[in-house]
Design a protein that fits this description.
Layout lengths: L9 H7 L3 H4 L8 E2 L10 H16 L8 H15 L10 E5 L6 E3 L4 E5 H6 L3 H16 L15 H13 L4 H13 L7 E2 L1 H17 L6 H12 L9 H5 L4 H11 L11 H14 L3 H9 L7 H17 L3 H14 L4 H13 L3 H14 L4 H13 L3 H8 L10 H13 L3 H14 L3 H12 L6 H23 L2
Parallel strand pairs: 2-4
Antiparallel strand pairs: 1-5, 3-4
């Protein structure tokens, strides 16, 4: 598909590359909006394809969490909200971006990303849910499609990469600049409007979703207010979330007014939220000693749950530092005291795996898989342990039992490639490694893996045909990407 593209609007250029004084005027910038509400610009199938391409493009620009436990938490939380949205049957995919910057964004096809930095900034689960509910509102109201009049003339790879660059903004300035140059070079009219109405609408429907899902509606203005107050510490480095989601006094007042129409009650955080925050803090901590001190200082503070979370975080911090005996002791105590708390037992199994006690790791994960047969994160960890202990056939059987959503994750293709490598089937291993590279936005590496697979000995006619089809598909994708540059 070809397009006629003229120039990028000045408003978009300023949003992506603000001058120092403009960086502070965040109240004048709003979320990008690309399309119409009728669906005439993009079909359901095109939207699905665009969403998948968008997600692949993101992988090449930012670090997306591959931790199955974190992914399971954020997807479960998101789905709880979706069930109370205007589009409960619409497919949504939630993911965590492992960046300390404060950001969240909604992309095409229901793909919603939340930065680890934003998660850590929240002080209650309802605050995190309020941000996600707001982003769900942008999707259900089709804000991303309403004003992209040239969208149908852009190729899927071009539009996906451009959307990724725009929605990431200053978080990936180089990618954004490349996307804009590409569009200008192609003379394509790609119009994006930033409107206050869309933010207000997303707030309104997001709050309805929030309340319906049994989260605190008052958390939305509370979090917005804390974001606004925090801007004085950022100077010119205003978080991307505040550039695309300007928080003004009137917006806080509006959301607070709506929140007050709901009856007041207590909304306790789930332990899953608190444990996920602790895990993210360990994974993203820039200084391991500081992380240790953070949890140690909280061992005797707060509620019972908060003290347990501090012990869990301390155990994970010890594990990250490869202090396996200390981690084992902390996590073993937690497991004995709370044997039904899956995160404690899973971390204990991970300790055995990371310390290369593979037989113990397999036993622990096997017991977990039996106790929690619906837990996909445990299944993935169990499969990983089976591979490391040299049981590829058993790992292969367990991979086949994963649900369809899990089988779309990059880790699925990576584990499948490892299984066939252990089974001494290089063609299949290269084939599935190609799929892993493709879903993580590395098209050139995917092509290389397919060509390596084609050089393997003893290829069947069926496998040769599959490899030829995939190579042709990847080459076509690469051509579309190159043509847009």
């Amino acid at each position: 598909m070809k397009c006629k593209l003229a120039t990028i609007p000045l408003a978009l250029s300023l949003a992506l590359f603000p001058a120092p004084q403009q960086a502070l005027e965040i109240s004048k910038i709003d979320l990008p909006d690309l399309g119409d509400s009728s669906g005439t610009l993009i079909t359901a199938e095109e939207e699905k394809e665009l969403g998948e391409a968008f997600f692949r493009s993101l992988h090449s620009q930012i670090t997306i969490s591959q931790d199955a436990e974190i992914q399971q938490y954020i997807q479960t939380l998101g789905q709880r909200l979706v069930e109370h949205s205007d589009m409960p049957s619409h497919p949504f995919y939630f993911f965590v971006v492992m960046e300390n910057d404060i950001n969240a964004f909604a992309g095409p096809g229901g793909y919603i990303g939340v930065n680890s930095g934003l998660i850590l900034m929240t002080e209650a689960e309802s605050e995190l849910a309020s941000v996600m509910g707001h982003e769900i509102g942008h999707v259900t109201q089709r804000h991303l499609y309403r004003s992209a009049e040239a969208a149908s003339r852009l190729s899927i790879p071009t539009m996906a990469a451009t959307l990724a660059a725009i929605l990431l903004g200053t978080q990936s300035a180089a990618a954004a600049q490349a996307a804009i140059v590409a569009i200008q070079a192609g003379s394509v009219q790609f119009q994006i409007n930033f409107t206050r109405e869309h933010e207000e609408e997303a707030d309104r429907v997001g709050m309805q979703t929030l309340a319906g899902a049994e989260f605190d509606p008052r958390s939305m203005p509370t979090f917005f207010e804390r974001l606004q107050q925090s801007t004085r510490f950022y100077g010119q480095n205003v978080p991307e979330f505040l550039r695309t989601h300007p928080v003004t006094a009137s917006r806080i007042s509006d959301t607070r007014g709506r929140a007050e129409t709901y009856p007041y009650k207590q909304y306790p955080d789930s332990l899953g939220y608190q444990l996920t925050k602790a895990k993210i803090r360990v994974m993203t901590g820039l200084n391991d000693t500081d992380t240790l001190n953070f949890f140690q200082s909280r061992l005797n503070q707060g509620t019972d749950d908060q003290r347990l979370v501090a012990r869990y975080g301390l155990g994970l911090a010890m594990l990250k530092l490869q202090k396996f005996k200390e981690a084992e002791a902390i996590l073993q105590d937690l497991h004995k005291a709370y044997p039904r708390q899956v995160q404690y037992t899973s971390a204990l199994a991970r300790t055995a795996l990371d310390s290369r006690d593979f037989s113990t790791a397999v036993l622990r994960y096997k017991k977990l898989a039996e106790d929690y047969p619906e837990n996909e994160a445990i299944k993935l960890d169990y499969i990983n342990a089976l591979i490391k202990v040299g049981k590829p056939e058993e790992a292969k059987d367990n991979l086949a039992l994963l649900n369809p959503a899990t089988q779309r994750l990059p880790i699925y293709w990576e584990l499948l490639a490892q299984v066939y490598s252990y089974l001494k089937q290089p063609a299949e291993s290269h084939r599935y490694l190609a799929e892993y590279y493709y879903v993580t936005g590395q098209i050139r590496e995917a092509i290389l893996q397919i060509r390596l697979a084609q050089k393997s000995k003893g290829l069947t006619a069926q496998l040769s045909s599959i490899l030829a089809d995939r190579l042709n598909f990847f080459l076509t994708q690469e051509y579309e990407i190159r043509r847009s540059r």
